[in-house]
Amino acid sequence: MEASISLKNVSKQYGLRKALKQVSFGVEKNTIFCLVGPSGAGKTTLLNVLTTLVRPDDGTIYIHGLNLKTRAAKIRAFTGYVPESNTLNPVSTIFENLRIHGILNGLPGDKASTRAMRQLDRFEMIDHAHDLPPELSYGMQRRALVARALVSQPEILYLDEPTANVDYPTRRLIWKVLNEWRDRATIFVTSRDIQEVEQHADRIMILADGDIIMDGAPESLRTDSARPVEYMLRFKSENVQYRKVLESAEAVKALEQNGRTFTLQLQDGYGLETVLRNFNDEQIEQFTVTKPSLNEIIMDLIHKKLALD
Ligand code: ADP
Questions:
Q1: Ligand 1 surroundings by CB, under 6 angstroms
Q2: Distance, CA 127 to ligand 1 centroid (Å)?
Q3: Which of 14, 23, 189 to mutate to test the pocket of ligand 1 (most atoms within 8 A of CB)?
Q4: Average model confidence (pLDDT) across the chain
Q5: What superfamily in CATH does domain 3-223 come from?
Q6: What is the pTM of this model?
C-alpha cells in the first residue's frame, strides 16, 4: 500500500524537555491509525507538527509525497482536523458552521450547503441543524466537529481524542463514520483509551516519553508481548487429586490455585485440551482463556521504558 504520511527522525524540544525524540514512521493510505499514549507522551506535539501548528526542530515529513516544510499550504487544502476543544462558532447555527467551513475550503455556496446537510444527516443531527452550538449536548457538539471536518472531504483526517467523554451513541456513530471514511482517506486518531481504539484501529502506535515503544496491528501487539496467555480451569468440586494431576502434566508451566479454580500457564506449543484430557467432563465446571489486555501489555512496556531511562 502507498504511504500517505511519512516521518523521518522528527524531533521537538521545549527547553530541556524532549517532547519528540527522533520519531520515524509511515502511515499507509486508507488506514485508521491510532496514536495512543499516556498524558505527556508527545501525542499533541506530534499532531501539532503534522497539522503545521508547531514546527519540528529536526527531521523530514512527507504527506502524499509533498514535503510539509515547503508545501504546507497545498497539504492543508486536502487535510481535515478535528481538535480536542470545541472550536464551533457559538453565534452561528450548526448548519452555518458547516457551510462556512465548506466555503472557506473553496466550495461554491450551494455545494457547501448540500454537503453540510449530507454530513448532518450522516451524524443523525438534521433536527439540530438550526440550533446554536451552546444549545447542544457535549456529544452533539463532538458530532458537529467531525461533521464539519468532513464537509471539505479531506484525504487526510486528524482527530484529537474525538470520543473522549462522549455518550455511547455518539461514540458508536463517530467510529462508524470513520470506518466508512477510511475508504476515501487516511485517518489519524489520538487517544488515551487503548481498549476503545483496539476495536476500531487498523494500526496502533504507542508513544511514551517522546519515543515509539510499540507499533502494529492490534492483534500483533498482543502476540509480540512477553506477557503470557493464562487459562482458567474451574472444577465442580474441590479435590486434592486435581492439583496433583495438573502439577504432573507436561503441558503445565505454572499453576495457581484458589479453591476449585486454577490459573494455568502452558508450555509453548501446548493447548488447554492436552490438560483437559486428564479429566472427565463431569469434573469440570468451566474453562476459559484469559488473554492479557492490551492495556496491561502497554503498561508493562511503559514501566519498563521508564525504568530503563
Ligand atoms: P500528550 O499530548 O501526549 O499529553 P504533549 O505533546 O502535550 O503530550 O507533551 C509532551 C511533553 O512536552 C510534555 O512533557 C509537555 O509538558 C511538553 N510540552 C508540550 N507543549 C509544550 C510547550 N508549549 N511548552 C513547554 N513544554 C511543552
A1: 14, 17, 19, 37, 39-45
A2: 39
A3: 14
A4: 92
A5: P-loop containing nucleotide triphosphate hydrolases (3.40.50.300)
A6: 0.81
